[in-house]
Amino acid sequence: MSVETIIKEMAVKARKASIHMARLTAGEKNRVLSTIAEQLEKNAAHLQAENLKDLDRARDMGLSDAMIDRLTLSDKVIASMIQGLSDVVKLDDPVGAITGTWTRPNGLQISRMRIPLGVIGMIYESRPNVTIDAAGLCLKAGNAIILRGGSEALHSNQALAAVIADALKICGLPEYAAQVVPMRDREAVNFLLKQDECIDLIIPRGGESLIRAVVENSKIPVLKHYKGVCHVFVDQGASHDMAENICMNAKVQRPGVCNAMETLLVHEAEAQSFLPKIAATFKKAGVELRGCEKTRAIVPEAHVAVDEDWAAEYLDLILSVKVVASMDDAMDHISTYSSNHTESIITNDYGRARRFVREVDSSAVMVNASTRFNDGGELGLGAEIGISTSKLHAFGPMGLEELTTTKFVVLGDGQVRA
Amino acid sequence: MSVETIIKEMAVKARKASIHMARLTAGEKNRVLSTIAEQLEKNAAHLQAENLKDLDRARDMGLSDAMIDRLTLSDKVIASMIQGLSDVVKLDDPVGAITGTWTRPNGLQISRMRIPLGVIGMIYESRPNVTIDAAGLCLKAGNAIILRGGSEALHSNQALAAVIADALKICGLPEYAAQVVPMRDREAVNFLLKQDECIDLIIPRGGESLIRAVVENSKIPVLKHYKGVCHVFVDQGASHDMAENICMNAKVQRPGVCNAMETLLVHEAEAQSFLPKIAATFKKAGVELRGCEKTRAIVPEAHVAVDEDWAAEYLDLILSVKVVASMDDAMDHISTYSSNHTESIITNDYGRARRFVREVDSSAVMVNASTRFNDGGELGLGAEIGISTSKLHAFGPMGLEELTTTKFVVLGDGQVRA
Is the ipTM of this complex over 0.90? Predict the structure, then answer.
């Protein structure tokens, strides 16, 4: 069978399975998740043996230690997958909820009922645990899922897929509700992206080039973020202690993630006193600063920030710093360079806090809080399958609810249209 | 300037205007809509003169009378555009609404705030009044819009665009918030569909081939329906009077629209008594029946339904009829052939009504009501910009709310992530 045929058949089977999954109760879906967790525990040794094949291949190919670390299904990673499933079991099932009801003058009762999206296509290049995390969330929301992980994790992902399929069978459910693309061929992704009759939504996770390739080739709507160029703006009159604390957290706590701060904007009224302090703190933490002219006049050891710096997602201990004349200047800078991911204002001014919240066009807009909180778990969604800076039904972290939509339910007594 | 450059510049200007529009109050947006209505009234003669150019060209090209009728900006059509705008003025502004608030254990207060989508691209081939209707809804929801109407309506649409631009200028707002693509070139559409950095959502309205071409070429998410193959299922024990009344309304009241019934499914327990009656009624109304074998055994004058009939959107006084052994058979038929648009069950059975509502995967699922009610106005959304059978934030009619999304607002007191 050609790659195209295999992918097409997977999509058709997923669509069929999705109809079954959409009808399950929360209890039935929780049982699937618990069974996957049990099977993971039972099959840990086999999973790690399969994982070893990927690791051997990765070492032969000369992948970096960091890559190999991410690829490893350690006991700890398996335990965290099991914990993740048990966390999702505890979340409320969004499916079947009535999100609104009203009655028309002719007596028709109209409701919106929450339903699964249907079939989700997940394309990722990161750790194999995404296979379990994403499948758990999608199945709990009543969807079917097709997973395409990184080619370096193929053995691990196929072993994980077999565990999920077994769990589905044990529960008497269609095993095709969760499938992993079984080959490394690059063209498989492009065929997947053409199955718009069977797949409702594509969620890519990975580097910007992967995501751009997905958007370029997909006939199916894509929810994604390319990158996170997150800003913190220290407003006139802000508490310097709070600002320092938040800036350190936003930049240093985990610099390699999309909700880390990449650019610091400082109001000129605070720059003279705030910048030397925060520069010293950043220096101790090993952060390289790249500043505008005004910044460098105050902090001479900062490097020169060039135009590319304002749009850069460093994912590293590097920070661009700009002194601005007003919140309007800060918001102009943000609207020019931001990736619509996360921006925070540190302020004590009621009016400006309100304006910043209203006017900044990002998936999470914060007042006096670290950008690092833009995360499904931290925002209280329970878990997330990714973060969207696309503006559709999800803008920001996507939890269970973002894996559903609503249909209209119309209850009548024989009404006809006049 | 090349067509590509023109389209790109339109998209960039729309993006810029959208930032401005997103910040307007309901009062400011209502003033724009009222001003468009005033300008339509003032400029009616000019609009009709421009429309005449399109009509002359259409006659030269030999377009059908029906097409020419749809193209005509009669006094009545202009009055209905003005009325439509005034209806939208009366609708609540969705923007700024807080759709949920909760507090995290660390004291962070999280909210979801409704915001405009940004820039909507509307591609349509129908009447020029869509230009005003769509612009009114998009602007009221705080969006910018780029409109690409049918090439046969270019003069009319450009004149309407000038009216909107004037109204925006009178209100001190960016005129690029609503723009009409100013040329007939087909490639303009394809360039528009590539502006994913500036356009958030594409809504195509028109024939299936237009919509398929849009989906094929778009890098931007598309909300659409290809067609409406709507079913009515007459269940065992249903009231025959109610069933007849609803079936007639669903088929005959306006057969050329997407929410008209195309297939009638009848439970075999009712077929013998119900089908002869409804066949006689349909005959009087000029409806051609195409039936399965069991149908033709009861109604011999029905034509033979072939496989294509079950998937056909006739948009005409033709109806396919099938006798089914159970509701499960009916639901199987629906899940095989339906376009996920609208399905209705006529029943008096509580359990089956509940199952039908839950299990049928269509944008509107109805009990004892005509499929013709799947319409934004009829469902109480106030107005609609189209009907989606894509499953994203909108599944079904798209009103003002479906032209928005939400962002997360995070209010803290200095919280950092542990």
Answer: yes
